[in-house]
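Hey, sorry to bother you again with one of my protein questions. A protein chain has come my way and I'm curious about its shape. It would help a lot if you went through both lines with me. I owe you a coffee for this, so here goes:
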Amino acid sequence: MAEASMGSSAKMSDEVQPRSYWRWSKQDFYPEESFQTWDSYRSALSQISFRFKDRLLSRSDDANEIGELRKRSENDMKRCLNWWDLTWFGFGSVIGAGIFVLTGQEAHDHAGPAIVLSYVASGLSAMLSVFCYTEFAIEIPVAGGSFAYLRVELGDFAAFITAANILLESILGGAAVARSWTSYFTSLLDRPTNSLRIHTNLTNGYNLLDPIAVGVLTIASTLAMISTKKTSYFNWIASAINTIVILFVIIAGMISLYLLVIILFRGSHPNAGCGCTSYHRAEIMPCGFAHANTSNMTPFLPFGAKGVFQAAAIVYFAYGGFDNIATMAEETRNPSRDIPIGLLGSMSIITVIYCLMALALSMMQKYTSIDPNAAYSVAFENVGMKWAKYLVALGALKGMTTVLLVGALGQARYTTHIARAHMIPPWFALVHPKTGTPINATLFITVCSACIAFFSSLDVLASLLSISTLFIFMMMAVALLVRRYYVRGNTPRTYLWKLVIFLLIIIASSMGTSAYWGLNPNGWVGYTITLPCWFLGTLGISVFLPKQRTPKVWGVPLVPWLPSLSIATNLFLMGSLGYEAFIRFGIYSQNEVFHLLRMPAVKFHKKVRKISTRSNSSKI
């Protein structure tokens, strides 16, 4: 008896003993029955048609994403973030080198002084996507972000395509920013661009090895793995330094703007009493501090409306990164309060900052004289502030550092939730019991990004990243409309078919508008067809379909109009990209669909087990 009791107690202690985080068994990577033997794998492959139908039609739900899937990480992420952390994460994730590079490039090539309107247009488009992300993050506060939201509303197939694009963005995006970090670092040291890279005899585009990029990625990911809260502290400091640089740029330009306004409305030199008597071609030199030239803002639209929207499609990507904040909902103490403040608050401020920076550059220098490669540095040098180029380089460097840091957090959380759904090995879903962070997922993204950053310049893949981002944002808007107007088990089938028809009209008309713009930018006849169709499709949802769900705390206003407008703007911006981007995107998506078909289905085996269990119970 005693031996039996001792044996049972020993068995119980073995059962309650937690498993080690660092484990490498086959069961941790491939727990599904399909992978246990070659026969079972071949059997699963023979069910391709059934599995494809299953993945195409199956959908998750809120409770499953919030409850069941999170348990697969074995340990919870620490709830340590508040609205202040999320707001600064928003600054750190979005404000990188893009604003310093893209503004001058697009002002010079496409928009002229109207670059500020390009930032307004792209900022409004980004805010529409932010609205969608905010509502979903409050309703489904998990680490999966857009992957989890699309899995609930559009199903496993859409979620898998999204997951593939998210992983692509995470790996290539991190590598691209790390390579840019090296370039700006050499600029800060006043050295040639590739002087810190190792020159080899490899194929062109892969012949400049970048160990500094690997080091920066490693440092950022290490900090992200140690602690989310400590990462937030570091992000505050780095973002604050970057903000100081940005304020310097804005203030320098706004002083010039203030002086210009005085000249335009008072018709006199504002420094008449300070010894600055030179006044030639309305040129001002306010005691040597800044330049304001009345001719800098004219012509305001040198390339017309076409140039404004072309530039908007490019500078839109200076707003990228905000979706990383939605992945932190699982670590937020009060998601219903903190996420709207953090996401909407940071993006609203960032939009204003971007517009002011664009205006400051246009005020300091004529658009034809702007250097597309170093706009702000050259502009300050031309007004006698050569030292400011180092300050700009430092600001861009700090911006890219925070982008890498917040990216390491967000990308790992995307990967974690994708692994929870067994779309990649579930080993990557594990959360470390002490740090409360997904170390395995962070290592996966970092190692892949570091390998690519070390070898590749990534010039060829830049457009593929852009189209992937816009595709996901468009899908998010579709998912929000589905969430509001369709609830499984409650919505009549006739309403479902109406919703599908109206959504197809909205998407098709938006694609038509984008295509017509690309083929005939100066035309107008095509818009008389596509725009009314978009309007009627949106109006149809508003009039003929009752809302099936009301947000619990906060929701996107003016539904269905704002989500429908988000679909249109994202498709419009996609259409502004070259056809090469669509070819690469199509090839990549086709490969992912093939991978999906040959990948053994977890749901299939679960259904088989449920059927067999049900039949056995019926026999009993």
In short: The two ends are 35 Å apart (CA to CA). The chain has 24 helices and four strands. The first strand starts at residue 198 and ends at 199.
